[in-house]
Write a structure and sequence with these properties.
Layout: E1 2-5, H1 7-17, E2 23-27, E3 40-41, E4 51-52, E5 56-59, E6 69-75, E7 90-94, E8 106-109, E9 113-116, E10 119-122, E11 132-133, E12 144-146, H2 154-162, E13 167-171, E14 175-180, E15 185-186, E16 197-198, H3 201-211, E17 215-221, H4 230-240, E18 243-247, E19 251-252, E20 255-256, H5 257-265, E21 268-274, E22 276-277, E23 283-287, E24 290-295, H6 299-317, E25 326-331, E26 342-352, E27 355-360, E28 377-381, E29 393-398
Parallel strand pairs: 1-21, 6-7, 14-17, 14-18, 15-16, 18-24, 22-26, 25-27
Antiparallel strand pairs: 2-13, 3-12, 4-11, 5-7, 5-8, 6-10, 9-10, 19-20, 21-23, 23-24, 25-29, 26-27, 26-28, 28-29
Helix pairs in contact: 1-6, 3-6
Length: 404
Amino acid sequence: MKNDLSIEEAQQLILETIGHLPSERVSIMQAAGRVLAEELLADNNLPSAPQSAVDGFALGDDRAPINSCFSLKNHMLPGDFTQSILSSKEAVKVVTGGDLPSGTLSVIMHENTLVKGDTISILEEIKPGNNIKQAGEDYKQGETLANPKTLLTSGHIGLLAAFGHNEVSVYQRPRVALLSLGKNIIPCSQTPKRGQTRDSNNPLLAALINQAGGSVAGYKLASELEDQDLLYGLDNLISMADLIIITGGTYAETQSEAQTLLESAGASIIYWGTDIQPGSHNGLALYQSKPVFALSGNPAACAVGFNLFVVPALRCMQGLSPPLKKVQARCTNGFSKTASSHRLVRGRVSYSSQGWEVTILPGQKPSMLKSLINCNALIDMPAGHPPLESGSEVTVILLETICE
C-alpha cells in the first residue's frame, strides 16, 4: 500500500488498476452519451446516388441562359424513381432528397422558374452541378463513421441511423454503489435530531455519477445498520455494483474507519491518503476484484475527491481517456489563504475575448455546500502557494463530465 500520494501519483495508480467494462449492444435511440466499443465503416456511399438538394426541376443541360425553355417530361414525388434518361432541353420535377434521373446535369429551384403547361422557363442562369448532392459527397464507401472509444453524440446517432445501424456495441455503464459510514448521517427525507445531519453526499454523488456516465446501483447509511452488519452491507453493495464509494467515517491516529472496514473485509489497499486540501483522507482498494474508493464525508471535499479520482476511474471503465484538462486563467477576485498543502479552490470558469477567467466561489470550507453551486473548475494551488489576488494568473482544472 502506498501512502500520501500526489494527485498525479494517485491518478496513475487508478489507471493502472482499473480497466474498461465489457461491451453490450444498445438501440441507437439510447446510445447518445455512450462510448462506442467497435469500429464502424460506411458500407455504401452517402448519398448512394445523385440527389436533388432543393425542390425544383432536374435539367438535362449544365449551362443555359436566363429565359431558356425546357420541356417538362415527368413529375417525381418523394420515393419515386424513374428509368428515363434526361436529354438536352428536358426537365423533370424533383423534390429535396429525391434521386435524380440519369442525365441530370443541374437542378433549378422551382422559385426560379415559370411553368406554363408542359414547358418551364428558367429565371436564372444555370451552371454545371447546381443544387445536386453528388453520390458519396457526405461519406464514401469504406470511410470511417466512428472509431472505438468514441463518445457518441447526437451527430453520431444521426449518422449511424443514415447507414442503417439500429443497434451499436458500447461499453457498459459503470454501476456505482454508495456507503456512508457516518453514524450521525440520516436520510435526507427525515428531520434531524440534535447531533444528526441529513445525508447530502449520496444525492450529490448520485448526480455526479450520472453526469459522468454511470448509474447508481444502490446505497446504504451506517446509521441504519448495526456495527456488525457493516461488512454484510458492503458485500451486498459489491454484489450489485462495478465500483463502490465509501464516504465519511471517523479518523483516529493513522487509521480511518473506511480503511479499517476494508482491511477487515480482506480488501487489497492500493493507496491511502493524498496530499490535497480538502479531502486528504481518501483511498482506493480492490475488494472482490472491484474498485472501492474512500472519500471525505465533508460535502465539498467529497465532490473534489470525486472529480479528481473517481471520474478518471469511471471514464476508464467506459473506455475513455482521463479528463482534467488544465488552462491558465485570470482571477476575478481573491482568496486570502496560503496553501499549506496542495489546495483545490472551487471556482467558476468562463472564456471571453480576454481569455479564461475564474471566479473564486464563496464557502470554501470543506463542510460547506455553497462553493459547489455553479462550480465547474478547481483552482490548482500547489503547497506553499501564496494567497490569490484579483487579476493573478492561476492554473485551473476544468471539471469535465462524460458528455464533452
